[in-house]
Specification:
Layout lengths: L7 E4 L5 H12 L3 E6 L2 H11 L3 E5 L5 H14 L3 E6 L14 H22 L3 E10 L12 H20 L6 E7 L5 H6 L2 H9 L9 H12 L10 E4 L7
Parallel strand pairs: 1-2, 1-4, 2-3, 4-5, 5-6, 6-7
Amino acid sequence: MGKLDGKVAVITGATSGMALAGAKLFVDEGAHVFISGREQDALDQAVEQIGRNVTGVQGDSADLGDLDRLFDTVKQDKGAIDVLWASAGTGKQGLLGEITEEDFDAAFMLNARGTLFTVQKALPLFNDGGSIFMTGSNASLRGYPSWSVYAGSKAVLPAYARVWVSELRDRKIRVNVLTPGQVGSPMLAQVMNEEQMAQFESVIPRREMGRPEEIASAALFLASDDSSYVNGQELVVDGGTTVI
């Protein structure tokens, strides 16, 4: 018996990395998973990798029309949601003094605005007692040079969670933030060179990047009844980076 038997989960930004690993694990644990992503080719490949009990919906989580289409598909196919992992996000480096309006708008449009409306648009379909969690970043907990805009756009998520716990208490819907540290993923490879990757890896106590599957295991905990008494929390999964 799986931990998510009969559940319907939605995971945004799930065409690669830890969210894709999470989608695979959720299906293995009995869920039907709806995944979204910006690029149709990457989405098709992700659906093929997952193999079963998955529906891919192309869309940008910063686009409210695309979010409507995602949740309309869920409504038509399954009618309700038990788990939402709002994982779509973006980020790039920029030193203070060199940050552009475009850099700021891109990060906050997706990470802060897109996440809020992902949750809000999912709510009418949510079963009482469900689980919502968002992908944060330990960049918001530690002062990494060049990452202020990204850190700021992720720092809003725990604030959302604390307020939404109060607003959703009568429906017994839990809201948490899953905050990974340095994880080897295609996104990280796109925004960092080898020297920067080595520097990031050097501050992890075990001197080794996290694996997407390790974050997926934490996501399963938040999605399942194993975390039934965890609410309004930021679960930091960064190998101890932010405590030393």
